[in-house]
Design brief:
Growth Hormone, Chain: A; transmembrane; transmembrane transporter activity; Major facilitator superfamily protein; 13 helices; 2 domains; mainly alpha; transport; 344 residues
């Protein structure tokens, strides 16, 4: 119990902290919104899938049951280490559950992380704001609990909108246009650029470069990125692709000093371009199931927009700073795509 003369500012901050804890705890009620975004591989207990209502609908029930199991341990831990460390442990469990769930490949793995570990963390943290707030304001325990639990009640309002924004196809559209512009532009203009370089000015050589890049980059890349996205998931592969693409764009002019490195750089760019074309439709069908085709139809407009944007942007940038500026801007677009991809 704090001393009577202790400033109540700390008490108000303690209650505010309790609101924030319950804001996170209440995110479990976002499941009704999130379940519609579950990929097909996580909708049923069987990896082969199933029919009828999705088994993933049970996730909220498992989360609440786990919260129920964790709640008795909250006051026990609090008596041993205090409310701050107890809440911190519960928060770490919630964060770990969400992090592990992001890489789950089966519904069982997802439930153990998102529902069980996350739910136990909620149970551990849940009563800490009541205990702390009640000690600061012993005569207003009801008011303290009411204020704290506004966080729980309003949580889904904030997180539903945030999650929908993060999962919405509009974000994927931006990722495509930022990532695809570089590759499509190189595919259409590598020869125009090369003909201005004295050591590359050879029709026969540049025809060979285009042919090898088409086969070893555009064709082979589609099989490679499609297979890798099945094995490692869309996010990891897309981050790798955009990092490789940005790096290549930054040194593309330097690579043009030699024929071999220019040929390799052009092949890498078409290799990355092909990855965009194969990974996004696969991701749509994994994420949106039967609606994947309709979603990808919308997303494909980003590829058309990227094809138009490349030449227009290149012309404007060449006038201002030459190929150095143009390729640096394309590298920056790839890095922006990487940043957006890290939030998927």
């Amino acid at each position: 119990m704090p001393e009577p003369a202790a400033p109540l500012t700390k008490g108000y901050l303690a209650v505010l902290g309790g609101v924030m804890i319950h804001l996170v705890c209440g995110s479990l009620y976002c499941w009704g919104n999130l379940v519609t975004y579950m990929p097909a591989s996580l909708k049923y207990w069987s990896p082969e899938g199933g029919e009828g209502p999705s088994d993933a609908g049970l996730v909220l029930a498992f989360t609440l049951l786990s919260q129920m199991c964790g709640m008795p341990f909250g006051p026990l831990f609090e008596s041993l280490v205090g409310p701050r460390l107890t809440a911190l442990l519960g928060g770490a469990m919630m964060a770990s559950g969400l992090w592990l769930a992001s890489s789950a490949t089966t519904l069982t793995q997802f439930v153990l992380s998102y529902a069980v570990l996350f739910g136990l963390g909620i149970g551990l943290s849940y009563q800490m704001p009541f205990i702390t707030g009640g000690r600061w304001f012993p005569g207003k325990k009801g008011s303290v609990q009411g204020v704290v639990m506004t966080g729980l009640g309003s949580s889904a309002f904030f997180f539903n909108m945030l999650c929908t924004h993060l999962l919405n196809p509009q974000k994927l559209w931006l990722m495509i246009i930022m990532s695809a512009t570089s590759g499509i532009n190189i595919a259409s203009s590598y020869k125009t650029f090369a003909l201005k370089q004295p050591n590359l000015n050879s029709e026969a050589f540049l025809a060979l470069v285009g042919s090898i890049a088409a086969l070893g980059g555009n064709a082979a890349g589609r099989f490679f990125w499609g297979t890798m996205s099945d094995k490692f998931g869309f996010r990891r592969c897309f981050l790798t692709l955009t990092a490789l693409q940005a790096s290549t764009m930054l040194v593309y002019r330097k690579l043009a000093e030699r024929r071999l490195t220019f040929a390799l750089g052009t092949q890498v760019m078409l290799f990355c371009m092909s990855g965009n074309f194969v990974m996004f439709p696969a991701h749509c069908f994994r994420t949106f199931g039967a609606n994947g085709a309709a979603v990808y139809s919308f997303l494909f407009t980003a590829f058309g927009s990227a094809a138009l944007l490349g030449p227009v942007l290149t012309k404007a940038l060449l006038a201002k700073g030459g190929y150095a500026l143009a390729y640096n801007v394309f590298a920056a677009l790839s890095l922006l795509a990487l940043l957006l991809g890290s939030l998927v």
